[in-house]
Design goal:
heterodimer; A: eleven-stranded mixed sheet; 16% strand; rod-shaped; B: 222 residues; alpha/beta; Rossmann fold; four-stranded antiparallel sheet; 7 helices; binds adenosine-5'-triphosphate; binds magnesium ion
Amino acid sequence: MSRRSRLSLRDLFSEALSGLLQRPGRSMLTMLGTVLGIGSFVAILGLTSTAAGQIDKRFTELAATEVRVEDVGADRVSHEMSFPMDAHDRVMAIDGVVTAGLLWPLPLRNPTMSAVPGMGASDEGLSLHAADPGALEAAGPVVASGRLYDAFHEGRAERVAVVGAAVARRLGIQRLESQPAIFLNGTPFTVIGIVSDLRRLPDLLLSVIIPTATALALYGPPIEHPATMLIETRLGAARVVADQVSIALRPDAPNRLKATAPPDPRSLRGNIAGDLNALFLLLASISLVIGAIGIANTTFVSVLERTAEIGIRRSLGARPRHIAAQFLSESAILGTLGGVIGSALGVIAVVAVAVLKSWTAVLDPATTLAAPLAGTIVGVAAGLYPGLRAARIEPIEALRQ
Amino acid sequence: MTVVVKCAGVGRTYPGPPPVDALQPADLTINRGEYVSIVGPSGSGKSTLLNIIGLIDRPTSGHYILDGVDVASLKEADRTALRGQRIGFVFQSFHLLPHRTAVENVALAQLYVGPKARQRFLNAAEALAKVGLSHRAFKMPNTLSGGERQRVAIARALVNQPALLLCDEPTGNLDSATSSMILDILDQMHADGYTIVIITHAPDVAERADRIITVRDGVLHV
Ligand SMILES: Nc1ncnc2c1ncn2[C@@H]1O[C@H](COP(=O)(O)OP(=O)(O)OP(=O)(O)O)[C@@H](O)[C@H]1O
Ligand SMILES: [Mg+2]
């Protein structure tokens, strides 16, 4: 008895490959649909995640745990800000609040600022802010040297200041041991701390910051440039805090305060992956289907063209399953190649857009690596029918042609 | 003496409509090493008989024992294996794969049989040498003459050292000079001990065989 016919995977692969290379031009054209389909899938998903990544970058945990309350009812007549004197205690009583505090730009026109008394040189780029210790803490400070002022300084309305590193450099302050002073319109303030970063209030880095009590005593309440309350919340508590804070601060007149919570990250991402993307994904699916039909069609035509070859192979001992496997492999290779080329083009498109927009390209490895596989699946699906048809061709019919 | 082909009441009727009795039930025995020619008018059933002997077609009646194996009781997979390993075909129209070199075409005969690619190549080269075509091993079929193509086909049929070499009008497409070269090769194979069955319309071709079988209207005249 003879041993049954067999075909090693390696031989199957090389037979399928040479079948495809017989007509390289046709194989390329056949792949086109799959290339387009897979390519658009990768590009669309990549662009979506890249764009979302830009938001993620801005929308960090820092922003997600931040609530700001604006004074929208500062009263010019009574000359009062809307925040009550015990604002800090009232806010800290809200569940979910980590730290909070008030800040405002000082109402000084053309302030003069200098490290030497009487120098009187006004300094354009620098600004003046009042911030209570809670606001400083909530700003996410990185202390370069010295220290931040605290409730003690605030309670006694001490004339102390914290400055950004750049401000210190411009005022010629290097070391804090000697308790350097700066003069604001001639009033001396002791610089007790230099911060290299204020992560929530980066614009205050170009500012001289003094306690609010000191500012109130010297310059009066903030009316023209109203005060803001900066609140750091626990992760996930920001929206709830924002909903409650106005009433907690001013149960009598909550409308005078306006709380802003960070946007919901989900809705943000939702906006980006909007209708347009759904449309593009639909188009990509259609071109993938067209790609599959293209492969199926070409494979079917090649089965018909190569009927004689099928007859020869059968006469040489090929079983129907060997014939089916060969055509199935050819279409699977076409699909895989189309998937690989499409993925590469898709990735290139995403990177190109990212470079043009100076974004960071974000590609989900799962989708990018799965894309060629999707091509294989398309190819296999497309090859099933032609492969089965080829297997059913009788050698005697095939050889008669 | 070993019997290679033993047909008992083997017949073939193509289901119609109308049904065609292409081959009337017939008995036929071919011994190992025999060189048999089959002649007869067109449509008389010569190819039908050869295809049944070569396991490309199934008889509708009778028993057929090939090389000691009762073929009727075999599963299709075993018939296929038997066909690939014990039978070599040579066709009138050569039936080479157009996009493969001569040596690749010959090696194809062992693709489903078992040897590794390198061994297949060596065996193919050896078979090509036997038919005097070593110098054309890497040529594509469309650059070969008709006679050379048929020699490639013979090499392909021989590479598995089959029990039976079946040729359906192998010289039908060739001029007389080329034909005689092909027939010389077949004579050589016969001398080497191969069992050969050849269908032909040419009396001088038929004469070179040990035995002539005539088919007329589906009836065998042994
Ligand atoms: N698949 C088929 N269906 C129906 N009839 C068929 C089929 N194949 C062959 N026949 C018929 O069977 C008869 C024998 O055909 P066969 O091919 O064996 O003849 P042949 O002797 O080889 O002829 P030729 O010398 O022309 O090759 C013919 O009448 C033919 O028409
Ligand atoms: Mg015939």
